[in-house]
Design brief:
By secondary structure, the chain is mainly α. It has five helices and no strands.
């Protein structure tokens, strides 16, 4: 006779996809006994598999929700930054904008020169 703990270990390992041979080696239970347990405990194995599938689906849904939320926040942040730049540029004179454009052009040239090295 085997303990309930051993049978539960079998159910968990089988639900994880372990082969009968591997489980037999791990639990020191004969393969025919494992096949018998598999037949007797089929409803439990199906319930475990359904719970695992549901858990995976919930994780995937949560991940998709997280990614969508991150995408929306990033888009909103970008929009706010663009609005801030637009408002700042509206308060600058043409000469100030030209000075900024020249400075940025020099930075671009420096970075481009580093990239070609």
């Amino acid at each position: 006779m085997y303990s309930t703990e051993t049978i539960n270990q079998f159910l968990n390992l089988r639900a994880q996809g372990w082969s009968f041979a591997r489980i037999a080696d791990r639990l020191h239970v004969s393969k025919p006994t494992l096949l018998d347990w598999n037949r007797k405990h089929q409803p439990e194995l199906q319930a475990i598999a359904a719970n695992q599938e549901r858990s995976v689906e919930e994780t995937e849904t949560a991940q998709a929700s997280y990614e969508l939320q991150l995408e929306h926040l990033t888009l909103f942040h970008t929009t706010l930054r663009q609005e801030l730049i637009k408002r700042t540029l509206q308060t600058l004179s043409d000469d100030e904008i030209q000075t900024m454009a020249d400075a940025i052009e020099r930075q671009i040239e420096k970075l481009s020169a580093k990239e070609t090295r």
